[in-house]
Amino acid sequence: xxxxxxxxxxxxxxxxxxxxxxxxxxxxxxxxxxxxxxxxxxxxxxxxxxxxxxxxxxxxxxxxxxxxxxxxxxxxxxxxxxxxxxxxxxxxxxxxxxxxxxxxxxxxxxxxxxxxxxxxxxxxxxxxxxxxxxxxxxxxxxxxxxxxxxxxxxxxxxxxxxxxxxxxxxxxxxxxxxxxxxxxxxxxxxxxxxxxxxxxxxxxxxxxxxxxxxxxxxxxxxxxxxxxxxxxxxxxxxxxxxxxxxxxxxxxxxxxxxxxxxxxxxxxxxxxxxxxxxxxxxxxxxxxxxxxx
Length: 293
What we know:
Elements: H1 2-29, E1 31-37, H2 39-55, E2 59-63, H3 68-75, E3 83-86, H4 92-95, E4 99-114, E5 121-122, H5 124-132, E6 145-146, H6 154-160, H7 164-173, H8 185-194, E7 198-203, H9 204-209, E8 214-216, E9 218-219, H10 226-231, E10 237-245, H11 250-258, H12 263-271, E11 278-282, E12 288-292
Helix pairs in contact: 5-7, 6-7
């Protein structure tokens, strides 16, 4: 009788444990790659991550919300991120933490308005007047509301680089009361989309990869297209870098190798995402060489 009861318990235990062991085995096999950083690059990384997971079902790519370039560069050496996404290279001080930055893409930085607006282009002189507060209405009478960012934000710096007049005007705008302000790239895009008359700085990559209802404006009749960016005619260009530890982990290498030279992005750069065509060659000593085609 005891043997029979023991046998029943053994069979029952096997029936319960078998699926549990299977689940634990699957959980042990599934490996996570954590990626995060500048908001301008996250939409594209989500697309790449989804494509990577399809071809590598035992690996999952988790893309965190916007941390900014500095946040990503700080997070990688601490192990909070496997791969950081940055729009700048680490400083000499940051490189002391043992970091490798590899440029993987470029995209036009743009002035954008909601798709509800009829505005399609703007001049540098008009940009200066808008931020200085001397041009206050669009042609249809809507009040113009520039969306501001932090003074040291890369988008703000690029906007100022358009001309000395615009640099001065942005400084004036930072003292004007009541103008909308955004902390991160996604918040800026949200406000440009939703606030009537809004205009602000974002990137073509963000607009296209996140399917934003935004129109990138031509500046002085020059369209902010990947073609014009690659030719050098359109000069507002944002660069993106993968930031890893100097010796990337096996998981990082798997993702980076699948993304280099980013065949998926090369296809999308012309049709979907708005990247310039950038090819990369990784060198054994840890530096990266890049070129546009």
